[in-house]
Amino acid sequence: MEPFTKFGWRGIEITVPASWELAAHHGSQKAGYACLDDGRDMRLQVRWSRSKGDLADLEGVLRRYQRSLTKACKGNLKFDLESAAPLAIRGRAERVAVSFFWQSDREAYGMAWHCRVCGRVVIVEILFPVGESDRSLARRIMGSLADHRDDGRVLWSLYDFSFSVPSTYSLDHPDLVPGRLRFAFKSARRAWLRIERWAIASQWMDKVTLEAWPAELLKLMRISNRGPLVQTETQIRQHRAVRFAVPVSGGGFLRRERVTGLVWHALEEDKAFVVMEAGGADGLTQEVADTVRSS
Fold first, then answer.
1. Which residue in 16, 3, 287 sits closest to 153, CA to CA?
2. Which neighbouring-strand residues pair with 115?
3. How far apart are CA 105 and CA 97, in angstroms?
4. Are 95 and 116 in contact (CB under 8 A)?
5. Are 174 and 159 in contact (CB under 8 A)?
6. What are the sequence ranges of the domains in the chain?
7. Contact partners, residue 295, CB within 8 Å, separation at least 6
8. What is the pLDDT of residues 33-75, one digit of tens each?
9. Is the CB of residue 12 less than 8 Å from the CB of residue 22?
10. What CATH number belongs to 4-142?
């Protein structure tokens, strides 16, 4: 049986088969879309938005979605609302849900829900080739869905890479290219946070030693030192690491600011990791670095 893994994106968490990976995304924390595929077919779609009232009209939401599907499928659509009971969800006291099934050139089990705590309306669909729909698989996946955490953090988990950040930080820009994943976050207090994973790190280490990475990263970000770059050797889960701090200049919220960071090299995985921040709480880089996992 295929192993499962957790996908985390903008507060949405859902456990899916390990071969399903992020294929597209757009939007923000307030409203957006993400889809996963298995390398051949789209397998999961999730949409989220904020409700305007205490109780969202889920059937109305789904009727509008049905009309958009009908148009996209040129009228060739079977769409049925179902009881949410067979597709059990977490936190029933906090959430109301309506489940549905549709069939066109594909088949999908789906669910729309509204969380009274975070105010989100979420529509999630598990897609299958016609004739191959698996209700038990859909039930298992949707039963794992969560739209927020209670610990004040947000999990980001994709492409065998995961970490969590405080919920006060929102994703400003993801740069997801083969060989390098880069996430840039910002907070309402004008602090910023950056997390990166570099694959085949040994090739980069041949050109730039681990000790030289902090200076190179600052150059890449066009950040100018306002004082000495202080570095100390340390370890992250038994991996050799460099901790650094430097006063910087550059105008805006960086004026009279200090950048702190950690960079480490996991030899077994041959991956390098970076956590950098400015304007955040003391110890934030270590706090985030402790949550980083990769395979």
1. 287
2. 95
3. 26
4. yes
5. no
6. 4-142, 153-294
7. 160, 269
8. 999 999 999 999 999 998 776 556 888 888 899 999 999 888 8
9. no
10. 3.40.1000.10
Q: Where are the alpha helices (DSSP H) in 157-247?
A: 201-207, 213-220
Distances (CA, A) of 129 to 67, 107, 108, 274: 21, 6, 9, 40
CATH architecture of 153-294: Sandwich (2.60)
Structure confidence by residue, pLDDT tens digits, 250-269: 544 444 589 999 999 999 99
Q: In 3-state terms, what secondary structure has residue 29? A: coil
When pLDDT is cut at 50, 70 and 90, the band that residue 9 belongs to is very high
8 A C-beta contact, residue 58 and residue 42: no
Q: Residues 85-94: contacts with CB within 8 Å, 24+ apart?
A: 86/135, 86/139, 87/111, 87/138, 87/139, 87/142, 87/143, 88/139, 88/143, 89/113, 89/142, 89/143, 89/145, 90/143, 90/144, 90/145, 90/146, 91/115, 91/146
The residues, any chain, with a CB within 8 Å of residue 19's CB and separated by 6 or more, are: 2, 38, 39
DSSP 233-246: EEEETTEEEEEEEE
